[in-house]
Design goal:
Strand content: 5-15%
Radius of gyration: 23 Å
Shape: elongated
Number of domains: 2
Largest sheet: 5 strands, parallel
Helix content: 40-55%
């Protein structure tokens, strides 16, 4: 609870004793055990507390009014962390309205790239901690992930409709290798590339490398783009890249751009030419777009 909320355990115990804000159950060995309802309430309390409300005032707000105050504060705030907390609350309550209202509010002052990088990515990182500590269930994570996918799809469609492809320029082919199903990042990359005025061919998740060969007839300047989260795993990733080079890249002007944490397992001494590694979308942007999207 301390890691999730940012409130020290000692402070939580004082709040429980002095203000009766939380009433955790106790195990047989007297260890506090918090429910999802307690987590929801603590996130609400934390949001208001970090927004300047005194804890004594928060303690005087009943549970029904607390939700209304949190929603009002959230929709008026410019803080990314407040927005992230609001989206976590939307997840816990399965509240589409709060998620959409929070997103729409941020979008009035920031572009979608800013929201994805500064709100959605930190949110997903925090949800990873919540999931690993059994504070949330897979249904919560799926709920938020699919809402984020909806937002990416909407923004991607808008970008595609206004796209005027650059003449005689490269085409980006986005895909995920076999058994790689974590597609949020590749969906965002598709939007990101389209927004910069380049044509994309989006192929989606879990695709065998050999099925990419027939794409080679489309354009001589293809850039294959992938985001490796868990696959290919560390035992096979080097062989995967060598085979990819031989079958797809070797005899043409194509390249492969790799993002994602799995690239840390790549042996750089055997990495073929024409395969480029990127630790962020900014480094990817610097090579292929040469513009500052955050200017």
């Amino acid at each position: 609870m301390e890691n999730i909320s940012g409130i020290k355990a000692h402070t939580l115990r004082i709040w429980e004793k002095r203000y009766n804000l939380l009433s955790p159950e106790r195990t047989q060995t007297n260890i506090r055990r918090y429910s999802l309802l307690s987590l929801q309430k603590l996130l609400n309390i934390t949001l208001l507390y970090k927004h300047g409300f005194k804890i004594s005032k928060i303690a005087g707000i009943d549970n029904a009014e607390l939700l209304a105050v949190v929603r009002e504060v959230t929709l008026k705030s410019n803080s990314e962390q407040v927005s992230i907390n609001a989206l976590k609350l939307a997840m816990i309550n399965f509240d589409n309205f709060l998620f959409d209202a929070t997103f729409d509010k941020i979008l009035t002052k920031n572009d979608f790239t800013f929201i994805y990088v500064n709100v959605f990515l930190p949110l997903m990182n925090e949800l990873g901690i919540l999931w690993q500590t059994n504070a949330i269930s897979p249904s919560h994570e799926h709920f938020v992930t699919n809402l984020i996918k909806q937002k990416i799809h909407i923004q991607t469609e808008k970008a595609q409709k206004t796209l005027t492809p650059k003449d005689n320029d490269k085409v980006f082919v986005l895909y995920l290798p076999e058994n790689e199903v974590h597609e949020l990042s590749i969906l965002f990359l598709n939007y990101y590339i389209l927004k910069h005025g380049f044509k994309t061919i989006f192929l989606g998740q879990s695709l065998p490398a050999e099925s990419l060969e027939n794409i080679l007839s489309v354009n001589e300047k293809l850039v294959f783009v992938t985001h490796l989260t868990v696959e290919p795993n560390k035992d096979v990733i080097d062989n995967y890249l060598l085979n990819f080079f031989d079958s797809i890249l070797k005899n043409n002007a194509t390249e492969l751009a790799i993002l994602g944490p799995q690239q840390l397992n790549i042996n750089l001494t055997t990495l073929p030419d024409k395969i480029n590694l990127f630790n962020s979308v900014l480094s990817f942007q610097a090579k292929y777009f040469k513009t500052d999207v955050f200017a």
